[in-house]
Amino acid sequence: MSSVLAIDAGQTGTKLRHLDGEAAREWEAPGIRTDLPLVPQLTRVLGDAANRGGRVEFVGIGVSGLTDDAADARSLLGTAALLGARSLTLAHDSITAYLGALGDSRGAVVASGTGVVTLAVGERAVARVDGWGNIMGDAGSGYWIGRAALDAVMRSHDGRGPATALTEFVVADFPRLEDAYMELQGDDERVPRVARYARTVAELASSDGVAARIIASAAEELAHSVVTGLGRVGEDSVETPQVRAIGGVYRSRRLADAFEDVLRVRLPRARVLIGTADPLDGAARLPGVGEHSALRARLVRAGAAAS
Questions:
Q1: How many Å apart are CA 239 and CA 224, to the nearest integer?
Q2: Residue of 294, 293, 290 lying closest to 307 (CA atoms)
Q3: DSSP-assigned letter for residue 306
Q4: How far apart are the C-alpha atoms of 17 and 279, rounded to whole Å?
Q5: Which residues, including other chains, have CB under 8 Å from residue 7's CB and lie 6 or more apart?
Q6: How big is the CA angle at 295 (ends 15 and 64), to the nearest 5 degrees?
Q7: Is the pLDDT of residue 235 over 90?
Q8: pLDDT tier at 139 (50, 70, 90 boundaries)?
Q9: pLDDT tens-digit profile of 5-37?
Q10: How many domains does the chain have?
């Protein structure tokens, strides 16, 4: 395909790539608020892309928190037409994470950043595991880790839990610790703000027992989602299941190693690779997903597929 606009719209930030033959340029935009209507936010992203100049034939968008009701590809194609686009393909970001890591082959991809979602693909079946947001799920995500850190700090403060070095870092942000919950509740950016504590937890895990337990629990949750997904599509019994783990939480070597250790126990022959894909690659591949693919039913497309 000669020209594609690929968009990876996440909660922390939105990344864009314009591909035109061999030439590529990338830029970033604010993240997507999953508690607000998605189409107006994506319309603004497309409008900004049009203002930057350049023409595209195909648009592929992976979106965090995408639901069936919000998957209005035809409306978005109307805005993308400002770029010359004749086709727009919209998908949940679990799909673009998968395509970026494994293409159209079988296996499982767990993408954990601010949120987390696992997608498993078998010969005919596709299974999504978690990705249910910070209120109902996202176990093992950056938010989940940050939320666990805040919980541990308040337990220590109350005398319900052990002392932890995490307290020093939280108090630096909230000198009046007992007012922290009120400030966070009123902050529209509370989800990425809480998720940022995941880095602190990872850095302290080698010296602080509370942080170490949080990281170990996150690794268990992530591995459990992968094993569950592979089981649902029948890939847990193949000779060499393919597993890819991507996203910011895997920058923690301790978490990545613990995740792989759990998988080795549950799936001894799995081929596990960590941090080896870019969801923007998956977004760029969306227009080319054909009718034969097990993933096709998970896409919403306006216009024709790329040949």
A1: 19
A2: 290
A3: P
A4: 11
A5: 14, 15, 16, 42, 45, 59, 60, 61, 62, 283
A6: 35
A7: yes
A8: very high
A9: 999 998 878 999 998 877 888 999 998 888 888
A10: 2
Q: How far is CA 122 from the centre of its chain?
A: 21
Q: Please say if the pLDDT value at position 1 is more than 70.
A: no
pLDDT tens for 83-101 read 999 999 999 988 998 999 9
**Is 105 exposed, middle or buried (CB count within 10 Å of its CB: 0-12, 13-18, 19+)?**
exposed
State the DSSP code for 12.
S
Question: What is the predicted pLDDT for the residue at 41?
Answer: 93
Residue type at 21? G
User: Do 39 and 165 lie in a common domain?
Assistant: no
Do 142 and 258 belong to one domain?
yes
Q: Please tell me the predicted confidence (pLDDT) of residue 307.
A: 62
Report d(CA 300, CA 286) in Å as an integer.
10
Per-residue pLDDT tens over the stretch 260-276: 999 999 999 999 999 87
Q: Tokens in use for 101?
A: 């890591």
Minimal CA–CA distance to 87: which of 74, 104, 71? 74
Cα gap 94→307, rounded to integer Å: 23
Better pLDDT: 47 or 22: 47
Q: What is the amino acid identity at position 288?
A: G
Which residues face 303 on adjacent strands? 87
Q: What is the CATH number for 152?
A: 3.30.420.40
pTM tops 0.85: no
- Structural domain that includes position 180: 101-274
Report yes or no: 114 and 143 within 8 Å, Cβ to Cβ. yes
Q: Which residues contact 144 (CB under 8 A, 6 or more apart)?
A: 116, 134, 138, 218, 221
